[in-house]
């Protein structure tokens, strides 16, 4: 039946996956995000994306900021399609927002798209002016055990910080 599952999911309205005429947006565009049906909604599991080439612009100086993003989530019914996520994250290239605002915006857009059980977004920005900023945002679906997981992970976040070596 796995082949049948794959066939059913391939009929979804995914417009970017496999599209040879990909166009890149240089302005923030949450409309680029696409989702598909989770084939295992009764199982809790993490999906993790690492995006080492995230860029945005400082809203004051308009200088570029660079980061590695880590996005992890426990899907419910919908999942984010990875090519659409890549194009969406690329759309921040000319977007002017503070690091914390970018991470919260990404979390909000993914929550709106998928309604996941759990989600976290962690941006590890390279230093500018001698300081790096690493905003961490998480979310647990209200009224579920994942709400408590989100609180626990946030309250213990970065208790054992990584060794920072100028990234």
Automatic annotation (TrEMBL):
Q: Where does substrate bind?
A: 80-82, 99-100
Catalytic class of the enzyme: oxidoreductase
Catalysed reactions, as listed in the record? 7-aminomethyl-7-carbaguanine + 2 NADP(+) = 7-cyano-7-carbaguanine + 2 NADPH + 3 H(+)
- Which molecular function GO terms apply here? preQ1 synthase activity
| HAMAP family given in the database record | QueF_type1 (MF_00818)
The name this protein carries in UniProt is NADPH-dependent 7-cyano-7-deazaguanine reductase
Against Gene3D superfamilies, the record matches this protein to: 3.30.1130.10
Q: Does the keyword Chloroplast apply?
A: no
Question: Which family does the entry's similarity section mention?
Answer: Belongs to the GTP cyclohydrolase I family. QueF type 1 subfamily.
Organism domain of life: Bacteria
Q: What keywords would UniProt list here?
A: Cytoplasm, NADP, Oxidoreductase, Queuosine biosynthesis
Localization, per the record, is: Cytoplasm
Sorted alphabetically, which InterPro entries does this protein's record hold?
A: GTP-CH-I_C/QueF, NADPH_dep_7-cyano-7-deazaG_red, QueF, QueF_type1
Active site positions: 58, 65
PANTHER family assigned: NADPH-DEPENDENT 7-CYANO-7-DEAZAGUANINE REDUCTASE (PTHR34354:SF1)
What GO cellular component is one of the record's annotations?
Answer: cytoplasm
Q: In which pathway does it act?
A: tRNA modification; tRNA-queuosine biosynthesis
Q: List this protein's GO terms for biological process.
A: tRNA queuosine(34) biosynthetic process
What Pfam families does its record include?
A: QueF (PF14489)
Q: What does this gene product do?
A: Catalyzes the NADPH-dependent reduction of 7-cyano-7-deazaguanine (preQ0) to 7-aminomethyl-7-deazaguanine (preQ1).
Identify the EC number(s).
1.7.1.13
Point out the signal peptide segment. Answer: none
